[in-house]
Amino acid sequence: IAIPYSYHSPDSYVDTNVKGTLNILQAARDYNIERIIVTSTSEVYGTALYVPIDEKHPKQGQSPYSASKIGADAMADSFYRSFNLPVTIVRPFNTFGPRQSARAVIPTIITQLLAGKTEIKLGALHPTRDLLFVKDTANGFVEIAKSTKAIGHEINIATQQEISIQDLAQNLINIINPNAKIISDDVRLRPEKSEVERLLGAADKIKSLTNWEPKYSLQEGLKQTIEWFSKPENLSRYKADIYNV
Questions:
Q1: Is-contact 5 42, C-beta < 8 A?
Q2: Quick check: bond before 52 cis, omega within 30?
Q3: What phi and psi values does residue 182 have, to the nearest 5 degrees?
Q4: Exposure string for 196-205, b = 16+ CB within 10 A, e = fewer
């Protein structure tokens, strides 16, 4: 059973992440399910206190979403410890790729550029992220599910590389429309204490417990993502003029 990543409206964080996880954990216990993979998020770490961020890094709930995921992860760990439930908590860093929600930064940039915008509106430009192409993320889940050594562990999926939002945006501008420029839009800024300034994940643990290795560079992942968004039938699903939260 894989418990999915979710990012809903604030009033549903606890219901979706904590209560939803609890319900699935209890059902898995009732039916003697062989493996339970809980999808966590790098947001539980908050702004890095040290890098690379390993699984022992303190948890910091800098948003209601991350706080609810911390609670869900703790619930999953408690079922492993209390009932010997075969749980693994999987913590992918910033996954991107085709079909991604417009709430994420890469679709936000790409759709504005492909819509012909020459002023690309973004929030804070200085934060850094560890960007993971979706095929590497999916393969990480597969390899973790195949490894009995991973039971009872929290495991990052990360590239151990980081890029700032500004450098990422400029990279995409250079590929799609070099005449565009970046505009910092105050409406898109997170509250200061909520902004996660730096995410750079450690991948030592996943590599020690599984056969996983990332296969896609950032450039290759961006290329495949742009190709998908460039198809009119795909781009038409997105509204570049709307700020999605």
A1: no
A2: yes
A3: -95, 135
A4: bebbbbbbeb
The residue whose two tokens read 């679709």 is 107
Per-residue pLDDT of the chain (245 residues; tens, 9 = 90+): 544 444 445 556 777 889 999 999 999 999 999 999 999 999 999 999 999 999 999 999 999 999 999 999 999 999 999 999 999 999 999 999 999 998 899 999 999 999 999 999 999 999 999 999 999 999 999 999 999 999 999 999 999 999 999 999 999 999 999 999 999 888 888 888 999 999 999 999 999 999 999 999 999 999 999 999 999 999 999 998 777 65
200 neighbors 128 (Cβ within 8 angstroms): yes
3-state helix, strand, coil in the chain (%, to 5): 45, 15, 40
Q: How many residues does the structure list for the chain?
A: 245
- CB atoms closer than 10 angstroms to residue 33: 15
pTM: 0.92
109, 115, 116, 119: CA torsion to nearest 10 = -40
